[in-house]
Amino acid sequence: MEKQIKKIIGVDIGGTTIKFALMDTQGKIEKKWSIPTNISEKGKFIPNEICSSIRSSINKDTLVEIKGIGIGVPGAISSDGEIVVQAVNLDWEQIPLKKMITHKLGMDACLLNDANAAALGEMWRGAAHGRENLLFVTLGTGVGGGIILNGRVLNGCHSAGGEIGHIPIRSDENRLCGCGGRNCLETFASANGLVLSMRKKLELLGGSWTEITPPIIFEKAAQNDEAAKEVLNEFVTVLAQALAGIMNTIDVEEIIIGGGLSEAGAYLLDPLKEKLEKYVFPQIRNHFSLKKALLGNDAGIYGAAYSYLLKKAV
């Protein structure tokens, strides 16, 4: 790793907020800040606003010490790391973001998918510290993922590596996914999928709740509500079967669960680990760990910055 790299910047572009962090090469954050994501006019102002925010938030003496910037983007990145192929939430297609940032800031930049950035962040400074082979899963409004093998992100030939939320699930239902497919994993194993399953179950039983949210479902299951327990069991089964399929393919040492649903803690992780042990290949059984992510919303900025260090270490 190049010793002259003294400071780096991590940027995590989200649909509503862009997060920034200035840190040293060991991951010690010196400053964090954020700005709203301006998605007007197909997000054309975002690159300029990223650069302006960096220049206005970091003094000139510090700016000259910064050798590079890593940027996590909510979308697919070209195999050469130069172009945002598509980022639906930003209304971006074929945006040469690396070139734009490098030109405006006068410093090197690298791009990666935001879920991959979060995976790298958890490996570098989070729950998977010290590991080099892991599966990172985000369970939020959708299901995202990142796969790291031998310390490197698996991006794939078409920038679709780690898109575990779109594993097809066998079901008698016909749930439409945001990708245009039917019965993708995230239509069942996301927060939205869980709520939909609970609603369908209550309709089938002729019951109703004042409000249906994932925390309420977990709470009612803990109180021995049979409908909630059944729905959660189906939820965990579908998720475990999908993750076991990945584990049996890539044979990593650790699974890290992040996203809003991970806040359920042991109520999610314990039954998920139990079912995973049932479905994984015998040689893997009892030889992997399942952990909750540690970095929360900071995972992306850590991972984006670390991706730059990895790039320069090649």
Automatic annotation (TrEMBL):
Pfam families per record: ROK
SUPFAM superfamilies named in the record: Actin-like ATPase domain
InterPro entries (alphabetical): ATPase_NBD (IPR043129), ROK (IPR000600), ROK_cs (IPR049874)
Superkingdom of origin: Bacteria
Stated family: Belongs to the ROK (NagC/XylR) family.
Protein name in the entry: ROK family protein
Organism name: Candidatus Enterococcus murrayae
